[in-house]
Design goal:
two-stranded antiparallel ribbon; two-stranded antiparallel sheet; mainly alpha; 2 domains; single chain; Arc Repressor Mutant, subunit A; 4 strands
Length: about 140
């Protein structure tokens, strides 16, 4: 879990673009109206195991899905469910990260902190370790 500047814990989850799209679509379906499991499986074109894996991931991200009378529905979430969904790695370069980190917004500050954690870590190499070429 990572602290965001807004004080909310963010789950650090690495997912594929396909899975991110599936989660986003699932959330949008459940925001629209309650759905049966079979309806979700057919609409999403997924199997039963994948369905339950996605529900588990939504739960870990703080998105509550309620199950009552054979219907699945999205529970109201502060800030909205979309804001809690993980996003796939955009594979940005250092220059792109630096540019985005200059934005005067919460996302820009998060990117600036992430960039600093990477660049400051590499500026202070771990001491007390010998390189492989020295060990003999």
């Amino acid at each position: 879990m990572i602290d965001s500047p807004g004080g909310r814990k963010r789950t650090s989850i690495h997912i594929t673009r396909q899975r991110a799209s599936r989660l986003y679509t699932l959330v949008r379906l459940l925001e629209d109206r309650p759905r049966t499991r079979d309806e979700i499986l057919k609409t999403q074109r997924i199997g039963l195991r994948t369905f339950y894996r996605e529900l588990d991931l939504l739960k870990r991200c703080g998105v509550k899905v309620l199950h009552k009378d054979k219907l699945y529905t999205l529970a109201p979430t502060p800030g909205g469910a979309e804001g809690r969904l993980p996003f796939p790695d955009p594979q940005l370069s250092f220059a792109e990260m630096s540019e985005l980190a200059r934005c005067e917004c919460e996302a820009g500050r998060r990117l600036a902190a992430l960039l600093a954690s990477v660049t400051e870590q590499s500026a202070h190499p771990t001491t007390g370790r010998q390189s492989r070429s020295r060990k003999r």
